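Q: How would the structure tokens look for this protein?
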Amino acid sequence: MSSGPHGGDGALLAQALGRPLADILDLSASLNPVATPIVPIVSKYLECLDRYPDCDPAEQHLANAMGVDPGSVVLTNGGSEAIALVCGLLGSGWVDEPDFSLYKRHLIQVDRNAPRIASNPRNPTGVLAGPDEIAEVWDEAFFAMATGMWSRGDFRTGSWVVGSLTKLLACPGLRIGYVIAPDPNKAAIIRGMRPMWSVNGIACAALAELLDGLDLVFVAKEIAQLRLGLNEILLRHELPVEPSDANFVLADCGPWVQADLDRGASSAGSAGAAMREALAHQSILVRDCASFGMGNFVRIAVPNERGLEMLDRALNTVMGAPAPAPAPAPAPAPVTAPATSGISASRDDAMSGGQRRKQRRNIG
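A: Here is the predicted structure in token form.
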């Protein structure tokens, strides 16, 4: 039961197991675990399907929510298009590994002397960048969930910022991303590169309502609490956890495989892939980190309370069984330790008790 290079293969796992998709807990794609259910909102905008999309009002609303010059914000068809557009404009760049693979994919040339492209928080470590770290392009796909703020604000000092509302709104099928350019002139270049009507009509029409329901401070606090619960479960099952500020953590599966070897069981290859395979049989999908050069590790998205209980039960089963023996994976790559300040979520700090209770009902 192999997974794709970026995770998010819940439908494939359900098919392989012969189970309904609703039975699968997909922790390979790091989505907001406390997001408001999106279908009831977007279903109100189906009438826009009979006309071409207009993303200008949506861009304006996103810029207002972020407190950014509307002329500098470009809406895109997911964070992947934002990355592709900016990398395509730059042409050459450098990525300090481990980091998200799409940067190199969309660069014409990878050059150590070229401007740096980096995620913040770092993917897959989940660690926020230090205040003195610099990059030409910052990918802040997970930043709001880590900090309760929209951005660190590096675009004010000449950097590009790309982001993914797909992660924050937990809507990978809707495809909403963005670019914040250093100035409106550079944003205009990106708009000229963006394919016509690339952002779909439902995303453009529903975005204002989706953003109005967001409380970034609440989201970040809830995720931090759930992350503590996830860490406790992993440590209780003797899976060491790396420090993380994000809505995902890295768990070291090497000790699990080594324990099997100490008992005389035969096991070979990537410990992370072995854990992925074992959990897949328990209807849980995690992301092994072999593609990051970290074969002993899995990246696990922070789930809601129900997901935590399901993972705990699955690990009770898995940890008592011998580790599977998948194909070998590359040796782990060094991880640099990437803290922060930035654009706070205006209007998000104050939320009525009724609103907060309503959002809490959506958890689990």
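Residues 116 and 135 are 5 Å apart (CA to CA).

The chain has a mean pLDDT of 87.

Upvote if useful.
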